[in-house]
């Protein structure tokens, strides 16, 4: 009887530990995904600005003699 109670207590403790680990891992993975998505979004915005600056520089080079290299 004592062994069954000990097994039950140990099983419950292990289940609590597993639940906490799974919850922690889930939160960590979500955080990593969200940070990655934010970084990709920021990179896309930066790339768009770089393209706009390059297009403007190309246009100025063809229309303004002082800008030509």
TrEMBL record:
InterPro entries: Rx_N. It comes from the Eukaryota. Residues 10-68 form the Disease resistance N-terminal domain. One of its GO terms (molecular function) is nucleotide binding. GO terms for biological process: defense response. Keywords: Nucleotide-binding, Plant defense, Repeat. Gene3D superfamilies: 1.20.5.4130. This is Disease resistance N-terminal domain-containing protein. It comes from Trema orientale (Charcoal tree).
């Amino acid at each position: 009887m004592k062994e069954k109670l000990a097994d039950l207590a140990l099983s419950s403790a292990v289940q609590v530990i597993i639940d906490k680990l799974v919850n922690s891992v889930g939160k960590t993975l979500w955080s990593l995904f969200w940070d990655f998505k934010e970084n990709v979004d920021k990179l896309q915005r930066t790339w768009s600005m770089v393209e706009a600056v390059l297009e403007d520089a190309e246009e100025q080079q063809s229309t303004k003699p002082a800008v030509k290299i």
